[in-house]
Amino acid sequence: MLLFTTGYVPNEILNASYNYTPHEVELLLMIINTHKGDKELILNISTLTANYGSSHNNVKELRNAITSLLSKPLEYYNQEKQSYVISAVITSATVNAERGTVKFTFNEDFATILQRGKEKYSRYNFQTMLKLRGRYAKRLYLFCNAWRKTGIWNVDVEKLRKMLKVDEKYKQFGDFEKRVLNPAFAEINEISEYEITPELMRSGKKITSLLCTVITKKEFVSNKPENWNKLKQFGLSDWQIDNVMNTAQDGQIEDAINMVLMNRHQIKNTGGYLVNIFKAQGVPMDKKLF
């Protein structure tokens, strides 16, 4: 039985470089969400395998996930030490099949991160994370979720490849897009509470960054006017859109949207491009009017 519905992930771990299997990601996040700052953490095996299904190999799968966390270190930036740290999440795990428990111990740096206040964490829906099946879908969901308030997540492609630990696996961007990005975003849009619109940003012919518009499905299917929803997909804030809807004419709004859609692959920041168009039309975009 799960202990919580809302999860928290430290910013350092959110942006760390690692490529764990789905069960390993779940184990990592379960440890993070149940750690209370002690040197040791004891969890029930049934809690750790709650999402594994009814297979009789659950304990074996859990042991494999634990072994991987011990043998595959992650790399993250330690803000306090102003340096990169490469270390395993846990230092040991004692599986007691008779009691049905696992006792984890931690390295000092990782334990320090877990003891910090929630202001340095990103909050997410743990139930959604468990429903996602793919390793990359789980990671990309956490990234997009962390930027839910601004509605835009813009990340350098090479940085993203490094965080997902696929910089050596999918060297051709076409393979990275086909094997990682496309199936992951399709799964996120199907299962999660978000409707993610990814867009490739280019410098000349080179793809440099990934710009994702993050909108909750509730917002996406709201009863707002059609143009309101379209502008939201480009990352404009609610008050900016209200200014546009109450100042510009429908034809001006539609022309601006069509201009961006026709040239989106040549525009680095579609949201900023739209803002500049509406500014030129006399729409206040720097302060809330409505």
- Span of the ends, CA to CA: 47 Å
Low-confidence stretches: none
Sketch the major β-sheet.
3 strands, antiparallel
Secondary-structure element pattern, one letter each: EHHEHHEEEEHEHHEHHEEHHHHH
Q: How would you name the oligomeric state of the polypeptide chains in this document?
A: single chain
- What does the overall shape look like? elongated
Widest β-sheet, arrangement of strands: 2-6-5
Give the second-level CATH assignment, the architecture of the largest domain: Orthogonal Bundle
Portion of residues in helices?
40-55%
Number of domains: 3
Discrete helix count: 14
Integer average pLDDT = 87
Radius of gyration: 22 Å
Description:
With 290 residues, the protein is of the alpha+beta class. The protein folds into 3 domains: 6-124, Winged helix-like DNA-binding domain superfamily/Winged helix DNA-binding domain (Arc Repressor Mutant, subunit A), CATH 1.10.10.10; 132-217, Arc Repressor Mutant, subunit A; 223-280, no CATH class. The protein has 14 helices and 10 strands. The protein has helices at 11-14, 22-34, 45-48, 58-71, 108-114, 126-131, 135-146, 157-163, 173-191, 217-220, 226-233, 238-247, 250-263, 270-280, and strands at 6-10, 40-44, 74-78, 83-87, 90-96, 101-106, 121-125, 152-156, 194-203, 206-216. The strands form 4 sheets. It has a 3-stranded antiparallel sheet. β9 (194-203) and β10 (206-216) form a beta hairpin. The model has no long low-confidence stretch (mean pLDDT 87).
In a few lines, what is going on in this structure?
By secondary structure, the protein is of the alpha+beta class.
